[in-house]
Write a structure and sequence with these properties.
It is found in: Nucleus. Keywords: DNA-binding, Nucleus, Transcription, Transcription regulation. Residues 27-45 have a biased composition (Basic and acidic residues). The chain has 136 residues and is mainly beta. Helix content is 7%, strand content 38%. The two termini are 27 Å apart. The structure holds a DNA duplex (16 and 16 nucleotides).
Length: 136
Amino acid sequence: MEDMYQMFFPCSSSVTKVDNSAHHKINTNEEDKPKSKMKKEREPKFSFQTRSQVDILDDGYRWRKYGQKAVKNNIFPRSYYKCTHEGCRVKKQVQRLLGDEGVVVTTYQGVHTHPVDKPSDNFHHILTQMHISPSF
DNA sequence: CGCCTTTGACCGGCGC
DNA sequence: GCGCCGGTCAAAGGCG
């Protein structure tokens, strides 16, 4: 996988950042290209792991669950969420890690284009420490 | 009532 | 082409 950092945040939870920058695909002038050759635009994506008893940590945004699937080689399902803010297409996935049921992997995809509804100090702190600045 | 989960169907990419 | 796999849709039902 990619490089990871271990760190702590309040509530005695450990956090591991997973840098997915290698997967980023910044498209410039994609509109000029022929439709037939148009490649799917990749949203910025990052994930991190928390040692938490609850699957859904409160990041201050409102999410609507739109799916849940079983993934291979993992007894735990993966859940899919969308940000419910109008026009905001941010998504996130949540799944537990096999072999360590205490670890939750959260993956964010996209950038919020609006302020957070209910700021969460814990969460903001995490992202800041991980050098992530998703327009909070 | 409005917003939320749940859940099976559906779909597209990829490997064989 | 076919089937697996991961991601999404949408109908139906739950709950405050």
